[in-house]
Amino acid sequence: MAASKINPDLQRERDNCTFSVKELTNLLDGGPQKTEERKQREEMVFQEGIHNESVPAMYLSYKEKYEIALKKSCAILKLVKKLQEKGKAGMDSYLALLGSSLTTAIVDDGNPLALHYIMFIPTLMGQGTVEQQAYWISRALNLNVIGTYAQTELGHGTFIRGLETTATYDPRTKEFVLNTPTLTAYKWWPGGLGHTANYCIVMAQLYTQGKCHGIHPFIVQLRDEETHMPLPGIKVGDIGAKLGMNTTNNGFLGLDNVRIPREHMLMKNSRVQKDGTYIKAPSSKLTYGTMMFVRVMLVKDLNNFIAKAVTIAVRYSAIRRQSQRIPDEPESQILDYMTQQHKLLVGIASVHAFKLTADWMWNIYNNVTAQLESGDLERLPELHALSCCLKAVITADAAECVERCRLACGGHGYMLSSNLPLTYGLVTAACTYEGENTVLLLQTARYLVKAWHQGATGGILPPTVAYIARAADHRSLWDNTIQGIVDGFHTVAAKKIALCVAQIKKLQTKQEMSYEDAWNMTSIQLTSASEAHCRALILATYYKETEQLAKSVSAELRLVLLQLVDLYVLYWALDRIGDLLRFTSISERDIEQLQGWYELTLSKLRRNAVGLVDAFDIRDEILRSTLGSYDGNAYERLMAEAMKCPLNATPVNDSFHKYLKPLMQGKL
Fold first, then answer.
1. Of 95, 62, 55, 81, which is closest to residue 194 (Cα–Cα)?
2. Which residues contact residue 82 at a Cβ distance below 8 angstroms, ignoring those fewer than 6 apart?
3. CB atoms within 10 A of CB 47
């Protein structure tokens, strides 16, 4: 579509913005230099024309979509290799170009090469010996091999200990023999496994000298490096169409007596010697390092999807006029309706909250990883619990936020060209991959129950659960401030954990249940306690980090950033008012004040809504939305996109003569 004038409603919104959009963009990027680097990277990619399509992907077959997605993915990587040869690209460049915003602009329904970088290479780095890393990582970075990561099976997902795939060591040949002994043991879901990858890290039960030693990682060649044909004993293919991510090439894998060299077991942590002797890792949890890394990355990446969705919905709400709010006045912008502000502005605040929480979590991950390298495993359980609950809560919030944005755009949000349905398909998938959310909350709950017992016996608690000891034993006076609300959420979390502990003990003593049965009977409350713990963590981190951040920005921007914190904390206080009434001393009068404060904050942020989404600085080629473009000409774009539909290529479709006309003439 040719360049056109900015919609006057949208231009007026920008003119009324009270802060510097550029200043906020730089802040979100990490500084002006980072913004410039990102813009240069985007410009470089789009100048290549990789994103161009002769026919919109939505009108192609499943097979055609995959082939084009692979073509585009390879084109991106060729570009990165070109930069690498010039000394301008390292691993960070790979990850940046494969990151959610840019890659989904080009490969908009899933990247078939993503797991090569997100899981295959990180697993080699985290679990391979120095010798294994030297050989495999160079081959992987040079794209001599394309890898994926196969853990989930047809019959087992989050319960990793239950995986059925076996790797049995044969000391005579010094090989492992891998098998999927049942249909439910087939690997199912790994991205790129179907027809893209020729190597795979397979998680399997290790058997040696007649004993099972649990889950370990093995490098398995799937396809011939020249012909790409599956090797003997390998049954591999695509699992078929899904709600979203249909070009990720999710696959299945069956293994029938597949032999691999002993050196293809990743042995940084655990080892099998030539005679079959097993040497155990310092901690079995070290095997799960890749999953924690991916969960941390997920928390960071989901922000991109929320930012896209809320940008689309806010811009559309600024140009869409509907109903006469005031008699004899023109139709109102739907962004002027407080119900619309309630739907959307919390989405903007969520992007800021999740970004700061993700950055905070990334620092913890790096610190704990450094400690692991020196043999210090003390904070590993805390990191695992943290990555589990943040992944669960933030993916659920992201899916809800994107869907709310779609609904906020009315009927036009249902159009695929709005990019909201496709974005929802990508986001909601994250609620089940890398750990189903309910199971992850229960894993966090196990840690919280242990922490409660540790605190109750006078033990020193790690930083993220230190509040349990001080908040569980008293009913603090309610303080109707942002800090007071955060403290209230900590009280809620601590008391929910305490109730779960008491309930489990009661079921064990009074009903003589086993601990496992008592845990199951309490599991609904346990997931609620985990969610409350995570919610308190996000609120506290967002508030604390913004207070620090606000010291280094202009007064105008500081005011808006703090208003966003107010909005986010107040939104969740009102959303969880039942918990606050149950576990704190909040009064009806306090709630009335919170409601008034929330509505006032919405009205204050209203004039800056468009400026706030503009600050995300998502160019139209990345947004890919008829409703959310920078110029705001949604109706013209909707019509232009409709004309690309193959049905509109001719004025009369062939089916009229074949089926409709005979029916109308009574000749069927």
1. 62
2. none
3. 8
Q: Tokens 């081959």 belong to which residue?
A: 139
Q: How high is the mean pLDDT of the chain?
A: 91
Q: What is the pLDDT of residues 453-471, one digit of tens each?
A: 998 888 889 889 999 987 6
C-alpha to C-alpha distance for 214 and 204, rounded to whole angstroms = 8
Segment 564-622, tens digit of pLDDT: 999 999 999 999 999 999 999 999 999 999 999 999 999 999 999 999 999 999 999 99
Burial 105-115 (b: 16+ CB within 10 A, else e): bbbbbbbbbbb
Nearest C-alpha neighbor of 629 from the set 405, 315, 415, 214: 315
pLDDT of residue 207: 97
- Amino acid sitting at position 509: T
Short-list 549, 552, 611, CA closest to 18:
611
**Three-class SS state of 423:** helix
pLDDT in tens, 231-271: 999 999 999 999 988 999 999 999 999 999 999 999 998 99
Q: Sign of dihedral through CA atoms 563, 568, 574, 577?
A: negative
Element (H, E) at 203: strand 199-208
Nearest Cα neighbor of 126 from 281, 355, 301 is 281
Residue 172 identity (one-letter amino acid): R
pLDDT tens across 372-394, in order? 777 777 788 888 899 999 999 99
**Residues 2, 188: Cα–Cα separation, whole Å:** 45
**Residue partners of 472: CB distance under 8 A and separation at least 6:** 452, 455, 494, 495, 497, 498
Quick one: DSSP state of residue 330?
Answer: P
Q: Which domains are assigned to the chain? A: 147-281 (2.40.110.10), 458-614 (1.20.140.10)
Whole-structure pTM value: 0.91
13 given a catalytic annotation: no
The number of angstroms, rounded, from the C-alpha of 556 to the middle of its chain's C-alpha atoms is 32
Q: Tell me the C-alpha distance between 483 and 500, whole Å.
A: 26
> Would you call 518 helix, strand, or coil by DSSP?
helix
55/74 Cα distance (integer angstroms):
19
CB 189 within 8 A of CB 433: yes
Tell me which DSSP letter residue 99 carries: S
Residue 160 dihedral angles phi and psi, to the nearest 5°: -70, -35
- Using CA atoms, how far residue 399 sits from 77, 278, 309, 394, 421, in Å, is 29, 44, 10, 9, 11
Q: b/e for 173-188, b at 16 or more Cβ within 10 A? A: eebbbbbbeeeebbbb
Q: What are 182-213's pLDDT values in tens digits?
A: 999 999 999 999 999 999 999 999 999 999 99
Q: Which of 42, 153, 164, 434 is catalytic?
A: 434
CA 577/CA 489 separation, integer angstroms: 10
Provide the angle, in degrees to the nearest 10, between the axes of the packed helices 555-575 and 482-510.
30
Chain centroid offset of residue 128 CA: 26
